[in-house]
Specification:
Number of helices: 5
CATH architecture of the domain at 6-127: 3-Layer(aba) Sandwich
Radius of gyration: 15 Å
Helix content: 25-40%
Order of helices and strands: EHHHEEEHEHEE
CATH class of the domain at 6-127: Alpha Beta
Strand order of the largest sheet: 1-2-3-4-5-7-6
CATH topology of the domain at 6-127: Aminopeptidase
Bound molecules: coenzyme A
Low-confidence stretches: none
Shape: globular
Distance between the termini: 32 Å
Length: 176
């Protein structure tokens, strides 16, 4: 699978067309217990609304949307770069919603998405990237492995899908 996985940035019309497939990935992640903004029940409507707003953001140039597709062009993973930041931070971007479907995990797809989103940030002239993740979770381990600097933790920052509080760790990466 990893050799046949392709990572690409979607333009506005592809982003809009990808909404149902992206919704499927998001629902799978929340159903799998990931703390990624949403609480159960993670309905198709809620997921479609979220990705429709993301696609509109792509259309407006406010965010970049990347997807990983398997050999059958099915979306198995995604990540975003939030470009719309205050005018005093033109060199910065936020990385958000790194998601890989459970059927495609532990194959290096998230790492490839992170490498690709860094490339996108460079193309966009951004030199400082920021993100956050559940403290000591799978994603936090990945970010540390690919060179992100751990800033610190905020206890009880968010909820897990089961309602338990979780700590969040903030990271940054200077790519200039
Ligand atoms: C976190 C997440 C994105 C990681 O995705 P992934 O594609 O499985 O990540 P990778 O495959 O790059 O790395 C995961 C692990 O597989 C290992 N791995 C990578 N390629 C491998 C291979 N070919 N064979 C065996 N193991 C491999 C990595 O070393 C890593 O190991 P670790 O658990 O010891 O750190 C995924 O678990 C996910 O979507 N979780 C739910 C949503 C979420 O929490 N997102 C983060 C928001 S901040």
């Amino acid at each position: 699978m990893p050799q046949s996985v392709t990572v690409r940035r979607l333009g506005p019309s592809d982003a809009s067309a990808a909404v149902p497939a992206l919704a499927e990935v998001l629902i799978d992640c929340v159903d799998g217990g990931a703390s990624v903004s949403f609480m159960p029940p993670m309905t198709t409507d809620k997921a479609i609304r979220f990705w429709t707003l993301v696609a509109q953001g792509v259309e407006r140039g406010e965010r970049a949307l990347l997807v990983a597709e398997d050999g059958e062009e099915r979306i198995v993973g995604t990540v975003q770069l939030v470009l719309a930041l205050p005018e005093n931070q033109p060199h910065r971007a936020d990385v958000a919603k790194l998601l890989v479907h459970r059927r495609a995990r532990r194959l290096g797809i998230a790492q490839r998405l992170m490498e690709a989103v860094e490339g996108t940030a460079r193309e966009e002239g951004r030199t400082l990237l920021v993100l956050d993740a559940v403290t000591d979770g799978d994603a936090a381990r990945l970010y540390a492995r690919v060179g992100w600097q751990r800033v610190g933790d905020i206890p009880n920052f968010a909820l897990m899908p089961d309602g338990a509080y979780c700590s969040t760790t903030f990271f940054y990466k200077a790519i200039g």
